[in-house]
Write a structure and sequence with these properties.
Structural class: mainly alpha
Distance between the termini: 67 Å
Largest sheet: 2 strands, parallel
Number of strands: 8
Strand order of the largest sheet: 1-2
Shape: flat
Order of helices and strands: HEHHHHHEHHHHEEEEEE
Helix content: 40-55%
Number of helices: 10
Radius of gyration: 23 Å
Strand content: 5-15%
């Protein structure tokens, strides 16, 4: 495909892509999602993240975040890929529209108490909020300077309807990301950048648990978990306590770095923060 045709094809996707990504801005969840609220919010977050990654890998999105294709990558694309991509984006847009219509139908003749919704900025459990904030920040940064228009928020109240919507959207997004294989390296680079923003091992494991369908992200997370160390926080040691927070590495084992936060020690505590290589003796804390 020549560069001019590629630019025309890309322009044909921008409008519907922007509309699809914008749909994620307006979804809320009803109070009957209390049990699985955090995980369901993250499912929406990850579908949105995967879409913005796909767009940025082709050159759609904020100027500072997107990765334009090289001449050789462009030459490897085809008009059929653009046609299929547009159909899939329209399907995603329609999935949101169907879910919104069902939500409006559900609201008829319901008591106000049945229509109370969660607010992620206030109600999201501490277990999920750091990862939610990180993913949302990345997605919004990629959407910068893209006008998503103004509209009213709406809510999903029935878990079955939400699951159906997420399954449809995820299926369409999965089909999107296998299009344009020439952009795979761009998507991988963007995926690595996403994972680099996730600070704790706990959030990496949560991400892996929520995103099994995003194979690229899961693979990058697995590699990151192997290369990173552990997270140690909240120690308050006194008296004659002893602590070694880190790995005990035998000869030839590569040492990993760890994260430490809010660690306190007083009195005659013996504490070693870091790895012990070749089983060296712990030294008293001073």
């Amino acid at each position: 495909m020549d560069p001019v045709s590629f630019a025309v094809g890309l322009a044909s996707l921008t409008g519907v892509f922007t509309a699809c990504v914008g749909c994620f801005e307006y979804i809320q969840l009803g109070r009957n999602f209390e049990k699985d609220y955090g995980k369901n919010v993250l499912k929406l977050d990850l579908a949105r993240l995967q879409m913005t990654r796909w767009g940025a890998s082709l050159g759609i999105g904020a100027e500072s975040e997107k990765i334009p294709l090289t001449a050789s990558q462009i030459s490897a694309t085809s008009p059929e890929e653009f046609e299929t991509a547009k159909e899939l984006l329209e399907n995603i847009k329609e999935a949101f529209a169907i879910a919104e219509k069902k939500s409006k139908d559900f609201k008829k003749d319901k008591n106000p108490d049945e229509l109370v919704v969660w607010d992620a900025s206030k109600d999201l459990d501490a277990q999920f909020k750091p990862l939610h904030d990180t993913i949302q920040g990345i997605a919004l940064k990629r959407q910068k300077r893209i006008s998503i228009g103004k509209r009213f928020a709406w809510a999903v109240y029935q878990k079955g309807k939400f699951d159906s919507m997420i399954e449809d959207i995820t299926e369409f997004v999965d089909k999107l990301v296998v299009l344009f294989p020439a952009a795979h390296d761009n998507r991988l680079s963007l995926c690595k950048e996403e994972v680099s923003h996730i600070e704790t091992e706990q959030d990496l494991k949560l991400l892996k648990d929520i995103a099994p369908g995003d194979k690229l992200l899961t693979d990058v997370v697995n590699r990151e978990l192997k290369s990173r160390g552990h997270t140690f926080t909240g120690f308050d040691l006194r008296g004659h306590a002893e602590l070694q927070a880190g790995d005990r590495n035998g000869p030839g084992v590569e040492s990993k770095s760890h994260y430490y936060g809010n660690v306190k020690a007083t009195d005659n505590v013996v504490m070693h923060l870091g790895n012990v290589n070749d089983y060296h003796t712990l030294q008293p804390h001073t």
